[in-house]
Amino acid sequence: EKLLRWLVDVQFCPIKVVSTGNKGKSLSLKPGNNSSTNGVGNGYLHTLRTSKGRSVLSIAMSTKHVKILGYLVNEKGVSLYEIKDVMEA
Hints:
Blueprint: H1 2-10, E1 16-19, E2 26-29, E3 39-40, E4 43-47, H2 56-62, H3 66-75
Antiparallel strand pairs: 1-2, 1-4, 3-4
Helix pairs in contact: 2-3
C-alpha cells in the first residue's frame, strides 16, 4: 500500500485516463484530482490498463489487498463498475 501511495501521491504516476472521443485519443489525468464523478466534460474517466487488460483495481481485487482497494475507491474515486469479471475477485 505504501508503494502505491508513494507512486500516485508523491511521484504523480497517473492511474486514470480521460477519453476525449477524438479517434481513440486519450489524455492522462493527474492523480491529484480526486473527483468522485465519472465524467469530465464529455470525457469518461477510467483507470489505465496493462497489456493484459488488467487495471490496478482488478489486480488489487484478485490479490485481495483490502487496504489498496480502500485507497483506490475511497481516496482516488476509482469506480468498482470497472471490474469486468467479479468472479475473478
